[in-house]
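DM from R.C. (forwarded with permission)

"hey, sorry to bug you on a friday — could you get me a structure for this? deadline for the figure draft is monday and I only need the backbone to look sensible"
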Amino acid sequence: MPDSSYDPTQLMPSCEIMALELKAALPHFSRVDWIEETGSTNADLLTRARNPEGPVSRPWLLGCHLQTQGRGRAGRTWQNRSGANLMFSCAFDVFLSARQLPTLAPLIGLSTCTALRLLISASTRARLTMKWPNDLLWNQAKLAGILIESTRSGTAQAADHHLIIIGIGLNLQDARALSASLDRRIADWAEIAAIDASARQITTPQIVARLANGWFDALNEATARGFVDLPERYAQVDGLSGKMLDVLDDGRLLKTGVACGIDNQGHLLLRNNQGIHEISVGEISVRVRP
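My reply, with the result:
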């Protein structure tokens, strides 16, 4: 039964508390900031990274209570209000070829889903899944979206040295209002916590620290070992496997078929009567057919 005593308004502490707790939890991050409001944490970190006179030691983390120009995939606006959404970005140095960078989308989605699953009870973890390439779903409703951007650092010298900015927007509350506004079902952490005792005990700084550390470890592992076991690990959180999908690009139908996982380049694999098709990471919308 849902816990009616759970108060989602207590999820977001002050900026000062967020920054203090995160600095303690992320000692290997050279800069951690949490502010009241900004246009976009991704854009702020991109600007900082491109400044040749700026700080060179990374990773960085920047979070805020409100983003006025937050962006999702394909340039979509991220709807939010102060205290209702968890929004932050991290900047990392990675050493991968340019052709490998698109594979980071499902990799980071996998890392995020795995980290969040470990914060909730084992009996409910299967309800938290991924929608390719990197949306997080709770009971097939969107819980969080991730935006990954790459740039050349102002101090980069090696050809394979890229600066990766990972931004996330995770709904803490307001799912009902968002569902009505967007005309599709949205999930939030309060919904999870209302039925899951473990989720009720987790603080917002703990969520942020777990995700930031997960991203850090995932990127280091990819740099060292590549993506050879990505399909097997992804299969454990795949929320689309076995479902009939329409794949669209800018509203135009590209393919229809049954989702059957991903390959080690992070492509979505779609099977139909013409065979198996590799769907590239890009501005592509995957729509679950009713």
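R.C.: lifesaver. The longest strand covers residues 85-95.
me: no worries. Residues 8-229 form a domain with the BirA Bifunctional Protein; domain 2 fold (CATH 3.30.930.10).
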